[in-house]
Amino acid sequence: MRHFTLTQLRYFAVVAELESMTQAAARLLVSQSAVSTAMAELERTLGAQLFLRNPSTGLKLTATGRRFALDLKGFLDHADLLFESAYGAAETLSGELTVGVFSPLASFRLPAILKAFEATHHGVDVTFLEADLASLQTALREGRCDLALMYGHGLGSGFSSQVLERVPPHVIVPEGHHAANTPGQEIALRDLAGEPLILLDLPHSREYYESLFALAGVEPNVRHRFAGYETVRSFVAQGHGYALLNQRVYNDVPYSGGRVVPLRLTDEFPPSEVMLVRLDSTLPTRRALAFEDICLRLYGATRP
User: Fold this and answer.
1) What residues does 98 pair with on adjacent strands?
2) What does the pLDDT average to over 80-104?
3) Which domains does the chain have, with CATH numbers?
4) β-pairing, 196-200 with 221-226?
5) With 85 labelled, which of 94, 113, 224, 260 sits at a CA distance of 20 to 30 A?
6) What is the pLDDT of residues 222-270, one digit of tens each?
7) Cα dihedral sign for 148, 153, 113, 161?
8) What are residue 263's DSSP bridge partners?
9) What is 106-161 written as a DSSP string?
C-alpha cells in the first residue's frame, strides 16, 4: 500500500496557495521538477486529481483539491506541534493567522484583542478580513480565514461557535428628539412607530432588526439604508431619523457632528451574540486556538 509523505503535503499546501509550481518551488527553495514530481505522486497515491493543468489558464485546484487544501491546514499545524514538543518548543507560536471580522465589530473589539495577542504571541503574523456576516461564512468555507469574530445571525450549518458576549439592541435618536430626555433614558420600540428609520442594511443584520420590529408589532418606516455603522449614526445625529443598533459607542458625537442619544429598549428582544466561529470539518490551528483563548480571557469566558 502506497502512502503520501509529509513533504508531499507541505509542497501541496504551498502549490495550492500560489497555484503555481514555479512560484512554489521558489518559496520552498527546491527545483520545479521536485515539486511537480511530488504533486504527481501525491495524486497517484490519493487516486484523485487535485489540479487542473491548462497551458492557457495555468494551474487551478479541482473541487477535490480545494477540500483537501482546506482540511490539510490544521493537520500540518498539528504535525508542527508534534515536532516542537519533541524539542521543548511547543509554547512558541509562529506563522500566519487570518481572522475574519464583522465590519461593525472591528473598531469595537479588534484593537484590544490584537494588542493582547501580540503581547503573548509576537511571532504570529495576524491579518484581518473585514466583511459582512454572509461574506464571512463564505470566507470560512473557502479557507480564506481561520476563524471569524462575528454575530451569530444567520449562521448556517457546518460551523462551531463560542459565544463571547450577548449585546442587547438599543435605539439612538438625535439630540433634541422628543424621547431624548425620557426618564431613565428608555423607550419601547412601538413609541417610535411611524418615525423615519435609518437602517443598518447588512446581510443577516437586516433580518435581525426586521425581526425585532415584527416582535414589537411595528411596521418600520425605513427612510435610508446604509452599510456603514458610522454613516447610520451620522444621519441620526443630523435629525434624519432614529436607528436600531447593538454595539454602544462611548462617544455620542459621530463624524458629521451633532449628537446622538442612546436609549435602552423596554421590549424583551433577543440580544445579538458576539461569537468566534470556525468550520466544524477542519482542525483548528494552534494559532487559531491561541487567538480564541485571548478573546475568551478578555471577555471573562472560559472554554467549555
Assistant:
1) 127
2) 72
3) 6-87 (1.10.10.10), 95-166+273-299 (3.40.190.10), 169-268 (3.40.190.10)
4) parallel
5) 113
6) 999 999 899 999 999 999 999 999 988 777 877 778 899 999 999 999 9
7) negative
8) 171
9) HHHHHHHHHHHHHHH-TTEEEEEEEE-HHHHHHHHHTTS-SEEEEE-TT--SSEEE
